[in-house]
Specification:
The protein is of the alpha/beta class and 465 residues long. Among the domains are: 245 residues, Rossmann fold (3-Layer(aba) Sandwich), CATH 3.40.50.620; 56 residues, no CATH class. Helices cover 42% and strands 17% of the residues. Helix 1 links the parallel strand 3 and strand 4. Helix 5 crosses helix 6. It is globular, with a radius of gyration of 26 Å.
């Protein structure tokens, strides 16, 4: 049986969907004001793996991942770049989709934008006001009174009585309490706005996800996911809004299972723009291929912190090379889509790992055991199963030839540089300049490139394992 670590209860639980054979899942997506960073990549890949495994288990999955396209950061970026908000959100939404495609992500069932669901947000805010959970401030904002929701703090453990005003929280004298949060912001000059019962304004960040998840999944669904940094205040506030509006009792669950992925640290420091250790997905793609970045993320458990460094990324590249190596000498027919027998052998171990709270490190270890077996004794049936299991994780999706030949960089040499040196070596061999040919081979070897000369006078190269 599939077990999940539920952040709400702080323990592993057997997964039991609300409706048999059907899973409804909502994941907080990206605010599109800049290029996605590798922290976003982790969230995107983690929940892509969750989605893939639920599908592999035979569930009918409705997977919703939202896009925040109205936010203070978006407005600031538009002002700084002298572009319209639509230009900013269109550009970075397209860039996000390009990154997602490169990372091999399956498309979610729907990817709603916040600005397309303002009407639902307004109705939800009205209901919270009617229930005495929200109030209109003197300056025209609408705020949620966290002291009126008895279960506030159930996810994060941050109860109202224990909350202390933090330096980063700007004190607003119009609020009843410092941690009351804004549901609707009164319009300011030169900012986008919508009409509402409280005048022109725009929604707060937290209300977006409550409204959109209800629209696509209903008022009670199975799984809610996101980065661990969203537990407080975002997800805590989502619970307060949703359970406050729709539940007859304050302690009735809105979502059954909460999943949160861990942080990515850069050289043992938390990734942060303020620390100038910020790495975008596109910058990472200049160092390694997209599949290597995906493998780097998958080989750690989704709840653990990952430390990023160039050395660790290089190690991930070498490790993925070992998985591709046995496939170089086994020709798998394109039509080989045999069903997997989950009851025995490697597949049974793979399934056991994935059913244990999506234990991808152990699932990857199964792939390495299969690769070792294939290196010792090539076997077509085993190779087909090996590739099929890898594909469930979004790995081993290209041909071995493409993997070894189409990498952007090998060591300090680009692909173009490697090919130029191979051509120079071929010329040296044709003129019987063996010392020059040997010198080039040695130089390539020192940069992690191994050459293989065929009888047809062709040379192929690959990374050293």
């Amino acid at each position: 049986m599939l077990t999940l670590f539920n952040t709400l209860t702080k323990q592993k639980e057997i997964f039991s969907p609300i409706h048999p054979n059907e899973v409804r899942m909502y994941v907080c997506g990206v605010t599109v004001y800049d290029y996605c960073h590798i922290g976003h990549a982790r969230m995107l890949v983690v929940f892509d793996v969750v989605y893939r495994w639920l599908l592999a288990l035979g569930y009918q999955v409705t997977y919703i991942r939202n896009i925040t396209d109205i936010d203070d950061k978006i407005i600031l970026r538009a002002t700084q770049s002298n572009e319209s908000i639509d230009e900013i959100t269109t550009k970075f939404t397209q860039a996000m989709h390009e990154d997602c495609e490169a990372l091999g992500l399956l498309k979610p069932t729907a990817e709603p934008c916040a600005t397309h669901h303002i009407a639902e947000m307004i109705l939800l805010i009205q209901k919270l006001i009617e229930r005495g959970l929200a109030y209109i401030t003197e300056n025209g904002d609408v705020c949620y009174d966290i002291h009126q929701f008895a279960s506030y703090g159930q996810l994060s453990g941050k109860m109202p009585a224990l909350l202390k005003t933090e330096a980063r929280i700007k004190i607003d004298a119009t609020k009843r309490h410092a941690f009351d949060f804004v549901l609707w912001k009164k319009a300011k000059a030169n900012e986008p706005y919508w009409e509402s019962p409280w005048g022109f304004g725009r929604p707060g960040w937290h209300i977006e996800c409550s409204a959109m998840s209800a629209h696509y999944l209903g008022e009670y669904f199975d799984i809610h996911g996101g980065g661990s940094d969203l537990q407080f205040p975002h997800h805590e506030n989502e619970i307060a809004q949703s359970e406050g509006a729709w539940s007859s009792k304050p302690n009735k669950r809105w979502v059954n299972y909460w999943l949160h992925n861990g942080f990515i640290n850069i050289d043992n420091q938390k990734m942060s723009k303020s620390l100038n250790n910020f790495l975008t997905i596109r910058q990472a793609f200049k160092i390694v291929s997209a599949e290597v970045l995906r493998f780097f993320i998958i080989r750690s458990h989704y709840r653990s912190a990952i430390n990023y460094s160039d050395m660790i990324l290089e190690d991930a590249k070498q490790a993925l090379t070992k998985l591709y190596t046995p496939l170089r000498h086994i020709k798998i027919p394109l039509e080989s889509n045999r069903s997997i027998n989950w009851s025995t052998g490697y597949a049974a171990h793979f399934k056991k790992a994935m059913n244990d709270d999506f234990n991808t490190p152990e699932a990857v270890a199964v792939l390495f055991r299969m690769a070792n077996a294939l290196n010792q004794q090539p076997d077509l049936d085993l190779a087909v199963e090996f590739k099929a299991l890898g594909n469930i994780l979004g790995l081993l999706t290209v041909s071995p030839e493409a993997f070894f030949q189409d990498s952007d960089a090998v060591g300090s040499l680009t692909k173009e540089m490697v090919q130029k040196m191979i051509d120079q070596r071929a010329t040296a061999r044709m003129t019987k300049n063996w010392s020059e040919a040997d010198r080039i081979r040695q130089l390539l070897s020192e940069n992690g490139v191994e050459l293989e000369d065929s009888e047809a006078d062709k040379t192929i190269w690959r990374r050293r394992i």
